[in-house]
Design brief:
- There is one protein chain.
- The protein is mostly helical.
- It has nine helices and four strands.
- The strands form two sheets. The chain has a two-stranded antiparallel sheet. A two-stranded antiparallel sheet has the order 3-4.
- Helix 3 crosses helix 6 and helix 4 crosses helix 9.
- The protein is globular.
Length: 278
C-alpha cells in the first residue's frame, strides 16, 4: 500500500524537536560551559605544505614493528583523504584549520585507538585538548625557554620522538599521538587525586584538570599541583584547563548536531522512497 508523504510543516516541526532533544541530552553533562562560534566550512581549501622536522633522538622512543607500522600508515592515509581544511583568521594571519566534522572524525578515531574509555575519557576530551593547544589550527610556537612547540598538538621535539611521531605537522598522526599521551597524563593525574575524598563528578573534573597540567607543564612545573590547590599554577595553565573544558563542550555540541542531521537525512530518504513506491 502506498503511503502519503508527511506534510513538510510537520516534518520541520519534528526535525526541530529532534534538535532540541538531542542537544539537551548531549549537553547535560557539561552544564555551565558555553560553546565557541564554530568555523564555517569552506570546501576545496587545501592545507599548507608539511614542514619536515627531524625529531630529537630519545631512548624512550616507541617504534612499532614493520607490519604494525604499515597497518597504521594505511589507516592514517585513509583518514587524511577524509579530512577537510578551511581558512581561519588567527590574529592578523589567515591559516588553515580542520573543519568541525573532520575534528570529530579525528578525535573519535584517536580516542578509540588509545582506548581512552578505559580511563573514563572520551573523544570530547581529545577534542578539548587539541582545542586548548592550537584551536585545531596547526602552527609552530615556542615555550618560554625557547623549546619549539610543533603542529596541531604543539608537541616539543623530545615528546614527539618519545611518542614515535615522525611528523608533528601531520595532523592525523599528531592527534592520535596526543590521545596516547593522554593515557600517561591521566595515570599521573589519577595518582595525584587518588587519596582525595571526591564524589564522582568532582573526581572526573579533577582528573581532566590534571591532564591539562601534565600536558601543559614540565616535570618540575607539575609538582606544584597536589590535586587540590591549583592557585600556584601559571595563568597559561589555567587557560589550558578552561579551554580544554570549553573544547569538550563544543565537541559534544557538534556531535549532537551531526546526529540530528543524520537522522533528518535518513528520514528524508525514507519519505522520498515511500513517495516513489507504485
Amino acid at each position: 500500500m502506498r503511503h502519503k508523504p508527511t506534510p513538510f510543516p510537520l516534518m520541520f516541526v519534528t526535525g526541530g524537536a529532534l534538535v532540541v532533544a538531542l542537544e539537551a541530552v548531549a549537553l547535560a553533562g557539561w552544564q555551565g560551559w558555553w560553546p565557541r562560534k564554530p568555523v564555517a566550512p569552506v570546501r576545496y581549501a587545501q592545507p599548507p605544505p608539511s614542514i619536515e622536522v627531524a625529531p630529537e633522538p630519545i631512548a624512550a622512543a616507541v617504534v612499532p614493528q614493520p607490519d604494525e607500522r604499515a597497518a597504521v600508515d594505511a589507516y592514517y592515509r585513509e583518514l587524511r583523504v577524509r579530512i577537510r581544511w578551511v581558512p581561519a583568521r588567527i590574529g592578523r594571519e589567515v591559516l588553515f584549520t580542520v573543519d568541525p566534522p573532520s575534528r570529530l572524525l579525528l578525535a573519535k578515531s584517536a580516542a578509540r585507538r588509545a582506548r581512552l574509555h578505559e580511563l573514563g575519557l572520551g573523544f570530547e576530551d581529545v577534542y578539548g585538548l587539541i582545542a586548548a593547544e592550537s584551536s585545531w589550527t596547526p602552527r609552530d610556537g615556542a615555550s618560554r625557554d625557547g623549546t619549539p612547540n610543533l603542529g596541531i598538538a604543539q608537541f616539543e621535539p623530545a615528546t614527539a620522538a618519545a611518542l614515535g611521531v615522525r611528523d608533528p605537522h601531520d595532523a592525523v598522526e599528531a592527534v592520535h599521538a596526543a590521545a596516547e599521551h593522554m593515557r600517561e597524563a591521566a595515570a599521573w593525574s589519577a595518582s595525584r587525586i587518588a587519596r582525595l575524598r571526591l564524589n564522582q563528578k568532582e573526581r572526573a573534573a579533577r582528573l581532566r584538570e590534571g591532564i591539562s597540567i601534565y600536558y601543559n607543564l614540565s616535570s618540575r612545573g607539575r609538582e606544584a599541583w597536589d590535586g587540590r590547590d591549583a592557585s600556584r599554577l601559571p595563568a597559561a595553565t589555567h587557560a589550558h584547563i578552561r579551554n580544554a573544558r570549553e573544547g569538550a563542550k563544543e565537541a559534544v555540541l557538534f556531535d549532537a548536531q551531526a546526529r540530528v542531521l543524520e537522522v533528518a537525512a535518513k528520514r528524508e530518504q525514507g519519505l522520498v522512497a515511500a513517495a516513489a513506491e507504485p
